[in-house]
Amino acid sequence: MHEKERHRIILSAVQERPVVTVAELVALTDSSEATIRRDIAQLHVQKKLRRVRGGAESNHPPQFVGLAGRPFSVNETMHGAQKRAIARAAVELCEDGDSIIINGGTTTFQMVHPLASKRLQVFTNSFPIAEHLLKHSRNTIMLSGGTIYREQNIILSPFENDVTRNFYAKRMFMGAQGLGPLGLMEADPLLIQAEQKLIGQADELVVLADSSKFENRSSLILCPLGRISTVITDEGISDAAAQMLEQADVKLIVAPSSAAQTQAARSG
Question: In angstroms, rounded to a whole number, what is the distance separating the alpha carbons of residues 40 and 55?
Answer without folding.
Answer: 8
